[in-house]
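hey can u check if this looks right to u? its 568 residues, i copy pasted from the old doc so theres a chance i mangled smth
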Amino acid sequence: MFIPGMRRAAVGLTALAVAAFGAVATSPEQADARPKPVDVTLLALNDFHGNLEPPSGSSGTIAGQTAGGVEFLATHLAELRAAAKKKNTITVAAGDLIGASPLLSAAFHDEPTIEALSMAGLDYASVGNHEFDEGAAELLRIQNGGCHPVDGCIDGTPYRGAGFQYLSANAFKTATGKPLMAPYAIHKVQGVKVGFIGMTLEGTPQIVSQQGVAGLSFADEADTANRYARELRRKGVQAIVVLLHEGGTQAATGGINDCVGMTGPIVDITNRMDPSIDVVVSGHTHQAYNCDINGKLVTSASSFGRLVTDIDLKIDRRSGDVISAAANNVVVTRDVAKDPRQTALINRYKTVLGPVAGRQVGVTNAAITRSQETLFGTSLGESPLGNLIADAQLAATDDEQNAVAAFMNPGGVRADLDAGPVTYEEAFTVQPFANNLVTLDLTGAQLYCVLEQQFVVGRTLYPSATVGYVVDPNGTTGTVADPCAGTRVVRGSLTLGGTTVDTAATYRVTVNNFLAGGGDGFSALTGGTNLVTGQIDLDAFVDYLTAQSPVSAPTLDRIRTTAEVPAA
């Protein structure tokens, strides 16, 4: 618990109090006569990603318990509201409610998720990067309603829009300089005002396709929050909450309500925020934490609806300022009754989706996970499922476009594959973005530059089985301006199909269109030439699973270190 109100006590509190309210209380009786503070409860979630049904595998557990599923989430929210004063409860979210969603939501452009969360009582949500997956116009449709401009009303009923307000203070229309969405909202509770500022991470253009953010610009999170905090104060709002789609990571030893060794962008952003901001509800990193950073309560509820953050605020009736704030991350267990309205919604959409979701497309010999192996003490190595997807993308383009290698970005691998039969729905959940495969020409020198850029952006490209190279932990890392200057990848170690790469030669390489456009910071890929767009990545994955079944996890031997391969 912290006391933001104390920050205003440094200068002349007694004089100010007398001037504003008359004589200061000098006895317990006088103190008791003061109005009691208003209790406000915030119920917060983030990074739901359309997980209407309980997620499977490791994505469906947290803190040692199975968790998630909107039928259970709605019940937990109702119980938490009942435990608090219902009329004093505000339900909020910190972005990525939609996008990268399972088939049940994505097949209907995430309308089912918006309906479900509206029905569950969501009031305000910041816009995350994945809300831009289908572009600004589609986000505005999601907010305001109307049938999809291409697919129409897929389920046969009108789409009425969100029953909550999306907020984004730092996503601006480049042409006009005006915010795309409402930047903030003011919510009154028993006469006191609570301000909510919505914030999208500034780096959205680097992790969303260029079509998704066309015509938009994104401003610094802390600077923008401070700007609108000043505006809120001018309107008499002293209790200010930022719903920020950016986050951090605590040490592995930390539990869901801990804040151990906190790192990541959230630390710097929060440190630069104005003292008038009391609470930061964050997201993006899919982590759970409950922190005090620079006198502010900073929380995150992991992902996929597995947690709800229960935040208790006490607000002074006279000043409107937050007196105290405390939070508790609550597991959305599955031992409660299902919300019948959510069950009906899920069943309605499953009926419309029909037999497509359950069609078997392959078989796995054992579970194939997306987890990355450790490289240099960090999770920057290969991934069994990531390698499998790269193999599938190469298989889809080696004949058609003479590709000799393929690379997959880790952020595009969204779920594990369980052992046994694989359905179309499961394959879709692994690769939900519908990116096109792009085959392009890169010189050997450009290939080395792409691989060096991995260490600049902190993301590993999963390579197809034709690729092999050696990494030197003592090598230097390039810079954002010049990733090619790095020496992490041992020169002469890169092979394609067992043949050493010639830096002057040209090679056909396959990636998805997100990477081809420089996504995830891989600007070196934009130097490719002779681009040919191929099939959807999901279709390539499904075809590969069908053709190669039963499928096993690939061996993780495509990226090796100098400790494994000593210098000649």
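The longest strand covers residues 322-331.
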